[in-house]
Amino acid sequence: MLSKKAIFMNQQEKADGPGLSVSKTRTATIDGNEACADVAFRINEICSIFPITPATSMAELADQWAGEGRTNVWGTIPDVVEMQSELGAAGTLHGGLQAGSLVTSFTSSQGLLLMIPNMFKVAGELLPCVIHVASRALSTNALTIFGDHQDVMAVRQTGFAMMASANVQEAHDFALITQAASLESRIPFLHFFDGFRTSHEIAKVTMLDDGHLRAMLDEELIFAHRARAMSPDRPNMRGTVQNPDVFFQTREAANPYFDRCPGIVQRTMDRFAELTGRRYNAYEYSGHPAAERVIVLMGSGAEAARETAEFLAEQGEKVGVVQVRLYRPFDVGAFIDAFPKTTKAVAVLDRTKEPGSLGEPLYLDVVAAFAERRSAASRPSIIGGRFGIGGKEFHPGMVRAIFDELRKPDPKNHFTIGIHDDQGDTHLDFDAHFAVEPDSTHAAIFYGLGADGTVGANKNTIKIIGDDPEFFVQAYFLYDSKKSGSQTVSHLRFGPTPIRSTYLIRSAKFIGCHVFGFLNKMDVLARAAHRATLLLNCQYGPEEVWSHLPRHVQEKMISKRITLYVIDATRVAKETGMRSHTNTVLQTCYFAISGLMPREQAIAKIKHSIQATYGKKGQEVVRRNFDAVDKTLANLHRVVVPEKLDELSSTPPVAWMNLEGAPDFIKNVTARIIAGEGEALPTSALPVDGGFPSGSAQWEKRNVADTVPVWNAKDCIQCGNCSYVCPHSCIRTRLVHDSLLDDAPAGFESIAIDAKGFPETRYTLQIYMEDCTGCGLCVDACPVRTKEKASVRAINMVEKDGLEIDNRRHLAFFETLPVNDRSFVDFGTVRGVQFLEPTFEFSGACAGCGETPYLKLASQLFGDRMIVANASGCSSVYGGSLPTTPWSVNHEGRGPAWATSLFEDNAEFGLGMRLSADRQMQLAHQLLSKLRLDLGEDLVDELIHSPQRLESDIRRQRDRVAALKAKLTTLKGKKAIEARRLLSVADSLVRRSVWIIGGDGWAYDIGSAGVDHVLASGRDVNLMVLDNEVYANTGGQSSKATPLGAVAKFASAGKRSGKKDLALQAIAYGNVYVARIAMGANPQQTLTAVREAEAYPGPSLIIAYSHCIAHGIDMEHGMEQQRLAVHSGYWPLIRYNPELAEVGDNPFILDSARPSVSLNAFCENELRYRALRYTQPEEAARLLEKAQQQVTRHWALYERMAQ
Amino acid sequence: MNLSTRYLGLDLKHPIVASSSPQSRTLDGIRRLADSGAAAITLFSLFEEQIRAEQETIDFLIGRTTYSHAESLSYFPPAAEYSVGPGEYLELIYQATQAVEVPIIGSLNGITEHGWIDYAKDMVDAGARALELNIFFLPVDITTTSQEVEEQYVRVVETVSSAVSVPITVKLSPYFSSTGHMAQRLVAAGAQGLVLFNRFYQPDFDVEARVVQSRLDLSQPSEIRLPLLWISVLFDRLQCSLAATTGVHSSLEVVKYLMAGADAVMTTSSLLKHGEGHIATLLTDLQEWMSSHGFESVEQMKGSMSLKNCAEPEAFVRSNYLKVLQSYSGHR
């Protein structure tokens, strides 16, 4: 990712334009976030940060640079401070500014919303600063991490000036221009660019050096800022409380500053142009000089619009684009002046949505601007439209459709472009194939797996090409929403002219398909140009591959006259010790086939790049990569593609969905999203309020594992451990009566049940192989070692290839077997729990996830009456990301009702659910009392007063509710109205189990205050903290749960403070049930604690140790790490049950034994701890010793409490 | 009384050397060993295989998770992509040579030719006065011939000795068919010393959990017999230094080894058991023993009971076996 190296190594000496004060320029091939952060870091003194996608990497880079000792242009290392939330980051920014420093922050979306109160303050106090925003959609009906302007438009009223960058170069340049303009104008700035499209696009950037920065920032203005700052030596008051007599006037008093601001911005841009040769205008026109039809827009879409307008203008069309760079303060004069006088029709594009408004904000501003400055007769007609919401593509076909619409006498106003709105008919039709890119631009697309290194290799490729002074480059990457077996698509462009195509490649000359199975899953050749080249990684040789291709692929290859190359990169990678990393092999193929440069030169450059990338990881890694490069070309083969199809020589496609019995919505909507056809779904097909059906993951058969577990029935002891720990609910067991197995298909295994009192009953265990991620936790958890061979267990991993067909048949039969009656299951034992239906299955979590087994357990125990409030984070992503979601229903159709609100408010969100459930139960009780005589006194009394703690209690209450409902339907007359009222809340007579779920980022940091308040409320809620001790979802940033000595982002030198003891905090209340659990260490304690917590009639807090990919462990041994965490005393297992205090017992129970191994025995297996040993061994040793002391002290405290 | 001896061309003030052990993992530990009087310190071994495994593991752990998900393109700060190499070890050698006056001997366990050469050179550059080659090769592939195994040892010694200028010594395996001949070959290949013998990890079983356990128990005084035998045999037969290791817990073992012909006597287990200060005890006791038995110098003792100089050379060969059996039955 970085760049210090990229910046310093990727230097090119290139003559600047005439008259410039800096004679040499450097270029670097970097992404938008880095381009922006590189400047922001060097011109600020404090960065107050908090991670949020897609802005996170700006903060990470700042932290990294500070850690490396990089200084700003003032010669000091900026203080980079991670806060508990964006609210905290904004508060720190505000304070830092008031005290006279140069302060910045980086954020996006919901994070920016949290900054709003402070933004009003900062602007109201005329404090100069810049907040850099990778703009992103807001959470409304759903969350999306992708780019649009909803977030920045939500803060346009704060008083911040707003400047939009449209590409990576601008993100770099405007970071400086905004800072300079802010210092001069005293108006704080929001500098934004499109999330992902610009923040994550890699392009070649001409870098600003420190001289540029110093030249643009007038130090006198910084002195003035400091002179205005708070100081006891010249004190004054800030933030007074005012009354109606003066408040209005003070609000108006600052007007001149805002009035001057646009002029300052333009002058700053002009000064910048003199210095660098890069000229910008606050409102930039491009297109035909006598344009009649003009599009107005901001952000990255302006690049595609300008590229298209210029293409059309060259063909004589009178079209143009006004790109708005300075949105606030809006300079009406400069804006109007930017238009050709010939303009007759204007379309204003907003990348935001403001429901119920007259139009979106930019449209309304433009309408007002023309109304203010032009007479009605000289005004162009103006229409507004929405585009690019939530990262929706915006390409030349859409731009041309808008220009075409403007030609119409009565163009559609308030239109949408990019979707099919069959309900409101707002959409414009467009030509998806219209292209404007010059032929000289080379475009290549690569399909890979997250774990195979394709993206990393392409990042290297684009840097290698970017090194060539003749080439402009662009790279953009797509990832799917799953955390295991995820697919990636890399879009690479390069050519001799600047690349302004801010959209996915539509016609690629080269396609790399790095996974053969993708040919079945997606239309890999959909974006292939005529006569394109396809490089296929497959096990088949050049003679045999053709017959293994699916029919549709063969057809497309012939019709598009595709040139095909094959290589068994997987084999070459294995043979050269690269394991599953096919990246180097396939990168070498790309260079060899595409002929970008002579082969020897290409190989030398690849090797140079390998040395630069992997050198720090050690020469062995470099050697292996070199070996892979050297062995590649001998294995690369060109395939002769037949002229026409042969009827017999193709392979039928493999189904990756099993839609048999699926509901219509799944078939008509979900299945199309899975198939990559979501773009084509019209508005009418989709939910209006964000509600999607539960349990859709079961229909998608992702087949991501090469090896899967297979049951060794003969040796199984039926303990249930494998099923218990399976993160993806892929191991299911049932007890079956003998007679039901008569029709079992061949190979369907069962064994006599290992328990008394169940005559003629057999035990069967089935594995959902197509949903399995191959993590191996089940094998690790199996206690069996067979007598004959200690290496064989009762469940063992084997190659999946060839097992699928039988597995499908067995599962089809298994699912016809009756679900075990919950009243016969012993809920109190791990062995019993395996027979309970999970209502959380096949999630997109990482293979071997340490969190999901806890969720699955809760879903087995309480799923049929569970309401879940889920904080943002990993659990909301694997729990709620389309296309398919894991929260599901049992055979009765009941299951967890799941929702997310925000990151910061989850505890409160869940409390609201509790209040609502209680309210409805109270209402039901009232109505029951009213109808007591009509419904029967016994029934009503039992409904109101029966206990509902045990599963058997719940079962009886369900029966009563069913009886109640039946009776209610018989009531007539006046009673019928009461009956309807009662019917509407009757289900809530079964006690709802409210679960508030999230990670440590939520519970320890951003949501800490809410967690505290909800625990203090005394209400019956269950908080489950899936504690993986890091912000895993945003890429492993430190939280207050991160342990002492562990390395994490924002703590790259090892965390210096200890982990917060959240359990003790909660225990301090006295009336909160608290448990600290670790399934891998003590599965029974986990089960007991989860059941006790749920049964406790007040607030409960469960802190669940969740091993995580961000710990740097072999996930197969995650449960073993949990065991070591407990046995070392790092993670003492506890339960604090206030009910015990009520009967005079000690409520604090220490469930784990005294530490039996050193803390080091636990730490040494994890990269997060080892990391520091490589870089700072003595510091690592010091921190480990300190951590051991903490563990020892902590344990002693717990032992005293347990006495 | 003259305790001085010469080992690997180094003049040592006495023959007791701290052998490769966890105590030499830190600078403080090395200082303590020197302060308590160790004549030289052999550092713990640098294992090339461990470095490679570590590099591969990190590459796997980081590579597996990088660029897989749009929100989490990586999980570790770039600083975590550390250089996993011999840096820490070399730094320790350098620091140790600055901190203590006694010679520091580097110990290397390689697995590839470039590994042996590169790391050996690095250690010498860092200040190691000599190198101990901790060659460990367990031929679990039973098609490997004894000749092949021997060739491998010889090749390593040739490779390293031609790459570095400091003396090298080989920590020898006791499992050669002809130990003496092998010793000769190693000396011919460039070894200037031999350490007898290497104690290899031998697995144990946990029969309850049914897993194999790797562990190394501390050596016992009774284990000195095998090295004692071979030092006695090799004394004055080879152009190299001999060092004894294994089972040195008291001055008695030191005396025995010296009388067998060792130039240096190494100890690890006793220091782990009693602490670094035990070197001083060994030394005092050695002096007392020498004094009470009228020995004036270590040189006087060296090899005095070797095969060449002892009163009953036949005791070293077959008759030794017979005698033991006889004495054993006599006890019954």
CATH architecture heading of chain B? Alpha-Beta Barrel
Query: Structural class of the secondary elements of chain A?
Result: alpha/beta
What distance separates the N and C termini of chain B? 44 Å
Q: Which strand order does the major sheet of chain B show?
A: 3-12-11-8-7-6-5-4
Might you state the CATH topology name of chain B? TIM Barrel
Count the E strands of chain B.
12
What about the largest sheet of chain B? 8 strands, parallel
- The ordered H/E elements of chain B are EEEHEHHEHEHEHEEEHEHEHHHH
Q: What's the N-to-C terminus distance of chain A?
A: 52 Å
The unreliable regions of chain A are 1-23
What proportion strand of chain B?
Answer: 5-15%
Question: Number of folding domains of chain A?
Answer: 6
Q: Tags for this entry?
A:
heterodimer, A: 1203 residues, alpha/beta, Rossmann fold, Pyruvate-ferredoxin Oxidoreductase, domain 3, nine-stranded mixed sheet, eight-stranded mixed sheet, B: alpha/beta, TIM Barrel, eight-stranded parallel sheet, 12 helices, 12 strands, 43% helix, 15% strand, globular
